[in-house]
Write a structure and sequence with these properties.
By secondary structure, the chain is of the alpha+beta class. It is built from nine helices and seven strands; from the N terminus they run βαβββααααβαβαααβ.
Length: 231
């Protein structure tokens, strides 16, 4: 593709991963608009921001690094700001750089995972545009696609056990197979503490402010190990 030219189409004839691979191979910079409300921003073929209607505000995502207030971050994300927001935050708190990178990676991976579900959305790529966030933490497009595809495969398995987020779980009264102990992660403990047979998966997602994928994958593992059961 010509990295300086607009191009458009529909995912029915050219899937999103194929479009992104073209952007990456052409080392293009700009915005891929998807439907009416989703966007993927790239610089030199690398992705640095994915936005969908269900994505949290990027200011709220960056606030998780505890570098500045949401209001200050919103100011940095203003189109009038000379220094890109990600770069400015990294300069304000160099020690927080790994946290900022992790937060943006998870945010973008969640968004790409959502958008890779087959659809017939229209898309248009507009070169030369840059988001005020900036490409400080841009990532390999190929790597993000691979990780998002892996999540899709896992999600299909999870959906068999957790078909929707209205499902409720409760703790099993005993450890399985006469076990004396089981090791669980910190995240799993947070989710387990909320399971009372009435709290839905959707409630757990809301109360822990975690992604649906993160909660469902953890509950899926706990269910497979017979530590929780559907109520």
């Amino acid at each position: 593709m010509d990295p300086q030219a607009n191009f458009q189409g529909n995912f029915a004839s050219q899937p999103l991963d194929s479009v992104l691979e073209s952007i990456a191979s052409g080392e293009a910079s700009g915005k891929l608009g998807i439907g009416s409300h989703s966007e993927i921003w790239a610089e030199s073929g690398r992705i640095y921001l994915v936005k969908t209607p269900s994505s949290p505000r990027i200011a709220d995502v960056l606030f998780g690094a505890n570098v500045a207030s949401v209001g200050r971050i919103a100011d940095l994300l203003s189109a009038d700001n000379v220094t890109p927001a990600a770069q400015a935050l990294a300069q304000m708190a160099p020690d927080a750089t790994p946290v900022l990178a992790r937060l943006l990676h998870e945010h973008n991976l969640n968004g790409l995972f959502e958008l890779l579900v087959p659809s017939e959305e229209d898309f248009i790529f507009t070169p030369g545009l840059a988001h005020p966030l900036g490409a400080q933490f841009s990532e390999s497009t190929a790597d993000l696609i691979t990780q998002a595809r892996q999540r899709l495969d896992i999600w299909r398995e999870i959906a068999v056990r957790i078909p929707n987020t209205d499902v409720t779980f409760r703790l099993c009264p005993e450890l399985p197979d006469h076990s004396d102990e089981k090791v669980i992660t910190a995240d799993e403990w947070r989710y387990l503490s909320l399971l009372d047979g009435k709290t839905s998966v959707a409630d757990v997602i809301t109360k822990t402010d975690s992604s649906a994928f993160r909660v469902c994958s953890a509950l899926y593992r706990l269910a497979l190990e017979d530590l929780i059961t559907e109520s």
